[in-house]
Amino acid sequence: MLDGYKREINYLRISVTDRCNLRCTYCMPAEGIQLMRHDEVLSLEKIAEVARIGAEKFGIKKIRLTGGEPLVRKGIVSLVKMLKAIEHIDEISMTTNGILLSKYASELKEAGLSRVNISLDSLNPDKFKDVTRGGNIEDVFKGIETAKEVQLTPVKINVVKMDSSNKDELEKLEEFCQQEELKIQYIKQMNLETGTFSQVEGGQGGNCSICNRLRLSADGYLKPCLFSNQAYSIKELGIEKAFNSALQNKPEKGKTSHKHGFYNIGG
Predict the structure, then answer these.
(1) Is residue 65 one of the residues assigned to a domain?
(2) Is residue 77 scored above 70 in pLDDT?
(3) 213 part of a folded domain
(4) Quick check: helix, strand or coil at residue 231?
(5) Range of the domain at 215
(6) Domain tally, the chain
(7) Contact 9, 59 (CB under 8 A)
(8) What's 232's domain CATH number?
């Protein structure tokens, strides 16, 4: 399907939860967040229905599962199985912080997950703990190793470049990824409210001219752009009308957003 700027939209990013087992400083405010009520969050079956209609009627071929942290969503393996059964879906991937990945990697692969992106902003255990507000980096290393073992590949490492990042630290991350045969992507720290973003180094994210994605929030809003307040409720409009509205109103370029955060839309 083409949007108003002749871009082919074939990629749906699905936030399955706004909950997370980390509290990264660049993602969540120190005072915490107002979590969605459980009755607001889409069921696994409804998420799969949105994906199916997106594939059958609107040309969606790729799906990425995000959060929050997708691996804290109960039934995440079952959801992957449902999505894998949908005709025309060529790839199902996931962005995760890696903390729980060693536990679920084998089941996810068997269910049909293609690959994973893992967030890792420092190799220093203390710095990692500070940035994530309590995370254990050894859990991420176990997740990376297990993902490689079960062939959730290529494993990509997402590195957020922050003001506190230094050249030596980034070089060590790059060396680590080369040694472990991981692909690395650098993401400059973004700000939704000021519209601060740039193209991902080593990836295509942030390049508005070729953007091919829509986003589904955990509470059922289809969003045409990360940096936009536009959102269309599948509950109020129905799935097809929400898809059509998101497609027709996808902006040429992102600007700002004040209605969601990275913690509940998946970046």
Answers:
(1) yes
(2) yes
(3) yes
(4) coil
(5) 11-261
(6) 1
(7) yes
(8) 3.20.20.70
Determine the Cα–Cα distance for residues 10 and 177; give it in Å rounded to an integer.
29
Q: pLDDT per residue over 97-107, tens digit each?
A: 999 999 999 99
Q: DSSP letter for 7, please.
A: -
Q: Where are the alpha helices (DSSP H) in the chain?
A: 44-58, 76-84, 101-111, 125-132, 137-149, 167-179, 234-237, 239-248, 262-265
Span 7-17, mean pLDDT? Answer: 98
pLDDT tens-place string over residues 58-71: 999 999 999 999 99
**Sheet of strand 62-66, all strands in order from the earlier edge strand to the far edge:** 183-188, 156-161, 115-119, 91-96, 62-66, 11-15, 213-216, 221-223, 232-233
Pick from 165, 133, 162: nearest CA to 28: 133
Instruction: Compute the radius of gyration of the chain from its Cα atoms.
Output: 18
Q: Crossing angle of helices 76-84/44-58, nearest 10°?
A: 20
